[in-house]
Amino acid sequence: MANPGTSPGGPTDRDHGRILGARSKGVTDVTNFKHPALKQLTDQQVRFAPPGRRLEQLARAEKLLAEIDPTRQYPYQFVCFRITEYRPDSFPDLLIEGRDLEHDLCLMIELLARSTPAVPVEAVPEPVLTLDQISKRLNVSTKTISRWRNRGLVSRRVVCNGRSQVGFVQSVVDRFLATNQDRVQKSGRFSQLSDEEKEEILRRARRRA
User: Fold this and answer.
1) Residues of the chain under the 50 pLDDT cut
2) Which pLDDT value is given to residue 128?
3) Of 33, 50, 164, 193, which is least surrounded by CB within 10 A?
4) How far is Cα of residue 164 from the mean position of the Cα atoms in its chain?
5) Which helix (H) or strand (E) holds 157?
6) Alpha-carbon gap, residue 189 to 73, rounded angstroms
7) Which DSSP symbol is given to 125?
8) What is the pLDDT of residue 195?
9) How far apart are CA 77 and CA 73, in angstroms?
């Protein structure tokens, strides 16, 4: 049993004080998390959770990201439980704006993915598109996909056809397409698709998202 004030799935009550102290001193977060609590939760999982556990958390974080409504607020304890399956006592009053949560979940997913080995694409709980597959499906260059990765299209390493490759979970792709329609439609070769092809891709993404 955990000691009072400790939380295996999230920051402790003591951590809460340190976080607030750092914020009050104007410390800049070099990883650009919007919320120190989510940064610390990510750091704890990357440093201390076994690889198999991190892979489970990665899948749950990807699933949660696909469900976030940027106009809503989400309790920190709910977010922590969805990712770790542990509901902490810390931050009982912390509400996170949906748009900020999207931002921090993208960082969390990237950091968890970097800390885990590539897994067979068949072992991922939902369909995965490789970099080449998503490039061909959307008729855009791999360089464009790489730029989108910096704007929230998060990825993970998967083993496909015996090689380690960059993979994109289908629900994350659908969410990105549904929330970035203007950016996607303006991308060079995507704009060369017929109106019917573009609408079908975006309609499918909206429905899944």
Assistant:
1) 1-31
2) 94
3) 50
4) 20
5) strand 156-160
6) 37
7) S
8) 63
9) 12
